[in-house]
Amino acid sequence: MLSMSDIKQRIKSIQETQQITKAMHLISSSKVKKALHKYESNKAYQEKVRFTLKDILKHSESIEHQYLEHNEGDRAAYVVISADKGLAGGYNHNILNLALSHMQDKTEKYILTVGYMGRDFFTREGYMVDVEFLHTAQDPSVYNARQIAYDILDLYENRVMDEVYVAYTAFISPLKQEPRILKLLPVELEDFEDVGSMDYTADMLYLPSPREVFDRLIPEYVIGLLYSTLVQSFVSEQYARMIAMDSATKNASKMINKLTSDYNRVRQHQITQEIAEIVGGADALLGKDGEANEHW
User: Fold this and answer.
1) Would residue 40 count as lying in a domain?
2) Left, alpha or beta for 159 (phi > 0: left; psi -120 to 50: alpha)?
3) Given this model, what pLDDT does residue 196 score?
């Protein structure tokens, strides 16, 4: 059985940890409000962009362009979006293991990590991280999305890679975040099965030319898609951390209550023992069967 001083020390330690978990919960709560505003604004824009691009692809099947060509090779680049720190439940674990599993059948892999956790994970697994985007996970901006897009577009245009994927955590609801793999390049019509379209018969007219239009359109689409994945991952991270820290705070309260009961039990046992010792001492002084009185 632990002593009273040991139990008090453990209670103090858990209370200090509980203060940290409460603070992290509040910090994530404040970040979520700003992140949700970005998410809602970007969601409507991204849905419209994907709808428009599907419509263009559906009526442009005869056009050949590097961004639209299906490549037979299995060299792939991966943009893996994780957090800069842990304590977010299974957020990092789920997305990093999904990305690792997806890239197993690729003969050549080019890994771009967003966040410290992703970099450390792939290093431990024996992979070389080609490009690191640190602190970007905490700042899901169009500027950062553009920097990532320039790197992967350069790889693709120079035929270094046949495909480009982004591994991110999709925000479904405050209670559900889902790790996903999304193909960025090449852009193919089959990637838009979840998007509706308009049915009509018409010829697309491209000015000044189809190549120049797609040279500008696809990079902007990739930048927008990357920005969307960064925003969704950030929102998902904050909600995952809120849930994890709330659970940790509640567990800490349960542990404190249990330790407090243990403390009271030990204290009661100690008081009972002291009383027994006092009574025993008094009996020893008084003697048995009134011997002390006869002595006097």
Assistant:
1) yes
2) left
3) 67
Print the domain residue range for 65: 20-246
CATH of the domain at 141: 3.40.1380.10
Domain membership of residue 110 (yes or no) is yes
pLDDT tens digit sequence for 46-68: 788 788 778 777 777 677 788 88
Give domain status of residue 269, yes or no.
no
Query: Distance between CA atoms of 97 and 85, rounded to whole angstroms?
Result: 16
Residues in the chain: 296
Burial 224-262 (b: 16+ CB within 10 A, else e): bbbbbbbbbbbbbbbbbbbbbbbebbeebeebbeebeeb
pLDDT at 165 over 90: yes
* Residue 274 belongs to some domain of the structure: no
pLDDT of 160 higher than 90: no
Counting the structural domains of the chain, the total is: 1
**pTM for the predicted model, two decimal places:** 0.81
pLDDT higher than 70, residue 289: no
